[in-house]
Amino acid sequence: FYLSEPRRDQYDSSRGWSTGSLDLRTVHAIADDAGGAPYVVLANQSVSAGAVHEFGFSTYYDSHSPAAPGPVFFYPIPTGGPLYALFLDMNAHFGARADAIKAMDLAGVDTAYYVVDFYWYDARRIIVSAGRVADKQWSVGDKAFVFKYQRK
Asked: Residue 116 CB: number of other CB atoms within 10 A?
């Protein structure tokens, strides 16, 4: 039980991240930017939980991938879904456009958003790299960085 709680002691410092007001502001900023057009988001568990809190399980797309048939929720849920795997790829490839296109292809949409939180390991490198290839970028509270990719 002790190890499941956030710690700050002489041996370890952990934060135990959870969904907060910044995550909620981020999902609303994305929805506002999309203006009703279909989109998918590549984001971490806290942001995705914020989307579920604010919008419920309201938006699904039919998968356009024979390798991953079935419905695709518009935010990644880390239970093994194909969009979450693409989110992990996006992180590993520092916000590569090719991974955003794969997410768009999966859901059959023309817009993808990628959210990078300031506290991630290597966040600065990801932010700089993603900013070079995204079509639009902005921050929410200078702590959540949103990158918009559109099919060209």
From this structure: 30
By the 10 Å C-beta count (0-12 exposed, 13-18 middle, 19+ buried), 143 is classed as: middle
- Helix 45-55 with 21-34: angle, nearest 10 deg: 70
In sequence order, what are the residues at sequence separation of 6 or more whose Cβ sits closer than 8 angstroms to the Cβ of residue 95?
A: 114, 116, 126, 127, 129, 130, 131, 133, 134, 147
Q: For residues 112-138, give the mean pLDDT.
A: 95
Phi/psi at 63 (5° precision)? -60, 140
% of the chain exceeding 70 in pLDDT = 89
Task: Quick: pLDDT tens for 55-107.
Answer: 999 899 999 999 889 999 999 988 778 999 999 999 999 999 999 999 999 99
